[in-house]
Amino acid sequence: MDRRHTRFIRAMRFLSVRFIVFNVCVLIAVISMLVCLFRYDRLDGVIYLIITLAATAVYYFFVVVPFVKSEARMRRMIRGFMTVEEPGSHTVSLTPASEEMISAVYDILNSDKTVNLNKRQAQYLALQNQINPHFLYNTLDGIRSEALIAGLDNLADMTEALASFFRYTISNVENLVTIDEELDNCRTYFRIQQYRFGDRLSCRIEKEEDLGKYLIPKLTLQPILENSIIHGTEMKIGEGLTIISVRRTDLRIVIDIKDNGVGMDEDTLGRLNSRLDNRAEDIRNPDKASGGIALTNVNNRIHLLFGQEYGIHIYSMKDIGTTVEISLPAVTEKQMAQRETGDEA
Amino acid sequence: MKHEILRFARVTYEEKGEIYLKDFEISIMKGEIAGLLPLNAYGLTAFLSLLRYNHPLYYGRVYYMGKLVNSWQDMHRSYNKITVISSESSLVTGQSVLTNIFVLRPGFGQYFIRKGMLKKQLQPFLDDIGTDISPDTAVETLSGYDRVVVEILRAVVAGHRLIVLQEVETFVSEHDIEQLYAIIKHYSKRGITFLYISTHFEEIRRICDRVCVMSNGKILSVLDQENMDYRTEELLYFGYADHVIKSLYRQRSDTAGRTVLHVRDMMFPGIADRDFYVRKGEYLVVRPLDHKIFDSIVSMVFDGRTDDSKGFYMDGKKIDLAATRRAALIGERPDENMLFPDMSYLENLLFTADHKIPHLWMSKGIKKSVKQEMSYITGEEVFEKSVRSLTQREKIELVYERVMLQKPDVVICVSPFKGEDFTMRMLILELQAMLISKGIAIVTITMNMADSLSLADRVVQIDADLGAMEYSRDEFGSFPDDVPWSRVFQRRGESIMTHPDM
Known about the structure:
Chain A has two domains: 3-107, no CATH class; 174-344, CATH 3.30.565.10. Chain A is 62% helix and 13% strand. Chain A is built from 14 helices and seven strands. Chain A has helices at residues 3-14, 17-39, 42-78, 96-109, 112-115, 119-130, 133-149, 153-171, 179-197, 221-233, 266-277, 279-284, 293-306, 333-344, and strands spanning 176-178, 201-207, 215-217, 240-248, 253-259, 311-317, 321-328. A five-stranded mixed beta sheet of chain A has the order 2-4-5-7-6. Chain A has a two-stranded antiparallel ribbon with strand order 1-3. In chain A, helix 8 runs antiparallel to helix 9 (179-197). The two termini of chain A are 55 Å apart. Chain B is α/β, with parallel strands linked by helices. Chain B has two domains: 4-236, Rossmann fold, CATH 3.40.50.300; 242-250 and 268-496, P-loop containing nucleotide triphosphate hydrolases (Rossmann fold, 3-Layer(aba) Sandwich), CATH 3.40.50. Chain B has 16 helices and 20 strands. Chain B has helices at residues 44-52, 97-103, 115-129, 144-157, 174-189, 201-207, 230-236, 238-248, 291-303, 334-337, 345-350, 364-378, 381-384, 392-406, 422-437, 486-492, and strands at residues 4-15, 18-29, 33-38, 59-64, 67-71, 82-85, 162-166, 193-197, 210-215, 218-224, 259-268, 271-279, 283-288, 311-314, 317-319, 327-330, 410-414, 441-445, 458-463, 467-472. Chain B is globular, with a radius of gyration of 24 Å. The termini of chain B are far apart.
């Protein structure tokens, strides 16, 4: 038997008594209408027919359709797609209790606690709480001065890059920064990595004009660049190249972080991409090291800030390379400020 | 700013509980010629169907021309103005080109058809692409190339902004494909977007700006011009290339052996009274460069339409290829067209072996022993299955095993690799190699040599203008780069002729 039918039959068992009663009423109405139509007055039959059709339509649109939608949504949640819409945004709740349940799940999924479940963000917060930033910058500046006096220019440059990186990472706590600021941080991070890898690794940034002003969640690009180096180009024999390209379409801003590293096999790629929309796994096993934590973290933040239609997707083929595509809405600081003012009003 | 004409955003699509597309992400820009390379056919039909019809999604969103047209949160029942052109014509037969382009399109609201006016309207479109197709031509008489052009024109006139071309190189001749590419490029400059689907990377590289590699209902990678090089091709074809190289090293048959088939005084458009010979255990590729020649050869083989002394001869006797058991014919898509779904697996397997085994249909014992013997190759479980429920792999194996049991002198295959993914092409190569190893000659009639070259001993190219040209194996390196595997012959030169270990 068709699986949908089986589901429907199973679903019918869970229907509350009043729906079954309603169903029986419709059946009685149909029978009475048929009786009237063939035995008695034809006019009565027509009236019964209209009433029956109206009742059936009401039943279909107000009972069956919401039920099927609700069923589909719950099934998705069971499989891990924890993408609960805002309560009240869809008329698919069967009862007030189920509406309340959805509201409660929405609150849990969108709470700060959930956002901070990922390790990396928790680490940054810990750093912010424990380290006095000024002490760190002053120390790094001191090391830089000593290095310059000793004629160690490379060490001085490296220390300067490290100071800039920390300043950006742990000082400013705002959620959104401009693409230019993020790209500058990537350049700084790559400068530090180049001291380790030399000319074996290179990074190119390709950006269309005027895209630097658009907003992006802070620390979106650097963790992905780090992944690209550690899991992609570092493991490659020969020269590794990472290209960060920023482009704009009529629908969104797309940032690709592409490397020519070792890539990954189809199964790993499938698992990583599934994890990006499967938030249940993160909540069930937050400490389980199964890879892709940085990507999941960035993806979750984009979802929370901009909605489910934006986020990350990974493309990869073994020995060809990996591309992480980030989709974002084209929002400038001015538009964001206007939006926030509108929300407050 | 670029305009996204199509975007599948993390689409997961299931049908009857089976997931066909998983986290499927593809984006195509306005005026782009994008390629899609399916490494296997899984999910491709679902993708093509979702392009046009907004079936309910399990997850994800679909955007077309900047609008959200399908989403997992809502039920959509509309269709998208997207044209898919494949080997099956979507034109209405019995009607003219003009009728197909104008009258039969949705939204044609005129009660009286004014042909003169419609012809005038069509002429600028024809002039624009420099084609001389007559508007009054019946569509069933069009060549493969003309048919594709008419379908493109119909899409342009109907306002479709995305045209999907599926495996066109398998039914458009080599001569015409460059012209078709010119038309595609012309319209892409006008803002019409093309998605070119082909299982041959070298074909995609000729025309596309970038290519999306698809496998098991997922997009694995998006390769741009920088990455669409020979190194990538070798990586994509890694397992397959290995298989093909092994085929290249196969022990060659003695091409000076006994003639098993003599094709006498054949006449094709532009060619008169030409003889062809096929020798025992030989692999011959017949490659017509024109669709009309291809059609006439195929109809001659299958319909046996020859007269006088012209025709097919075996041991000096004229024979009908479709009737004799000394020859086997394998048409296009044998898994769909060459099996009897109401017959059992065993009956399908044996029905051309009656000349080898006396009283085959009367004796249950013979059938049982054949079943036992064949189950070592096919496995026992397939005999219990209904033919309808066999996988594509099992169906193709069944057709070739049937030919093996028949043990003909020559097998004629028509476009055996057409529309097949890597896995199936590898299987077909294996099965064909198995037939050759039994001393059975194979004649492959195809417009696209594709993978046949790796097994071929000889290639006969038939051109309406230049006549028939024959190439032996040591001349395969002279084929252009875009012919699959020709580079292997160029690179290895003489060394491929004999494997060092053989």
